[in-house]
Amino acid sequence: MENRKVLIITYYWPPAGGPGVQRWLKFVKYLPDFGIQPIVYVPENPTYPIVDPNLIKEVSDKAIVLKQKIFEPYQLASFFSKNKTKKISSGIIPSQKKQSFMDKLFLLVRGNLFIPDARFLWVNPSVSFLEKYIVENKIDTIITSGPPHSLHLIGLELKRKLDLKWFADFRDPWTTIGYHKALRLSNYATKQHKMLEHKVLNTADTIIVTSKTTKREFEAITSKPITVITNGYDVEKIEEQSLDTKFSLAHIGSFLSERNPMILWESLVELISEVPDFKTHLEIKLIGAVSQEVLETVSQFGLDLYLNNLGYLAHGKAISHQRKSQVLLLIEIDSEDTKSIIPGKLFEYMVSNRPILAIGPRDSDFAEIITSTNTGVFFNYSEKVKLKSVILDFYNQFLQGKLQAKGVGLQQYSRKNLTKELVDLIK
Question: How far is the C-alpha of 62 from the C-alpha of 401, rounded, in Å?
């Protein structure tokens, strides 16, 4: 019996690196195991802020991958400032106090001319190509994944033109995402975003989200069914890692300006002062894109002496560092808008057997996951005393060679189990 065909429309695909690519790369890996033929539609010449060629070999050989050229305004903007466009497209936006004239100009243009985002010019060509392909190949189900939310507009048009089932997958929220406020939106642009969000949420047959908070937010806008399917972890073939000999606190992923955790830096400085030999063991390990403001703050606290800034590493090497670091840092912006964000790396952290120190807004969705799986400790931004105490406790366990995490109930977050949830939904 021939596998059922499902068309997946996504922007991030190998050789793209970073968290945006992992969700559908892994779903596509496991869909054939459940009788689904994945057909993936991606841009041929995208502008990816992070590239990881090693991920190309992880693409399932059972997937059909379609590619079409895309024109992105970032390609023009990069002639003026390649560095700024790359940072903005990857979500690293300077705080308002530190924005230059060019920063403000780029954000103004990005927010008000590129609606909903800089991939909007790909919508019409994609609809023209896919409409014909869907009919010729008798496809009855499509999935769009955003951000970029322009891809949901492709789904919107295909749903309007064809008799098919459409699932809109939101890896992140749309108008409530933290960086939305930084885009200097005009009243007109704000209304356009909300109108398009409303249209997508009320036209798709089913909405898929990654957190309970996003589900609640969307339920205020639509009565369409909404299902939570979180991100997860895959079984990574990584050699056994020897633990760092230093008391290493590792942050893996983008370290944005707004994620700059003063309570962490203050706690470390106090422990250096108060605890004999703490400074001889301490290592702060940063892997991924780090904002200049975070680096400046680390320096101002005198912690650059303990800093090991490794920059972006290929996914496999980042996983190796997760397994060998003593403690893993997970930091989210202290804002109502980020309570719904469950960082994709959380699930990889959880199966590393290393304890997680997580800092974020009170009542964050990821706090519940960390607590229920016993994989670490969560702190809100007012809990410095508690944070410092736990760091000291971890340090003492490290000295005794007993520091590790003892996670429970992790299997529910395996990529294969999550793919089964997706299949049950679309079949």
Answer: 45
Q: Which residues of 208-243 are buried (b: 16+ CB within 10 A; e: fewer)?
A: bbbbebbbebbeebbebebebbbbbbbeeeeeebeb
This prediction's pTM: 0.87
Contact indicator for 66, 37 with CB cutoff of 8 Å:
no
- Classified as helix, coil or strand, 218 is helix
Pair of tokens at residue 315: 């996914």
Spatial neighbors of 150 by CB under 8 A, at least 6 apart, are 116, 117, 119, 120, 122, 123
Give the sign of the dihedral formed by CA 109, CA 111, CA 117, CA 123.
negative
Q: Which long-range contacts (CB under 8 A, 24 or more apart) does 402-405 make?
A: 403/326, 403/327, 403/355, 404/353, 404/354, 404/355, 405/350, 405/352, 405/353, 405/354, 405/355, 405/356, 405/374, 405/375, 405/376
pLDDT digits (tens, 9 = 90+) for 115-170: 898 899 999 999 999 999 999 999 999 999 999 999 999 999 999 999 899 999 99
Encode pLDDT of 256-279 as tens digits.
888 899 999 999 999 999 999 999
| CA-based torsion, 322, 53, 83, 180: positive or negative | negative
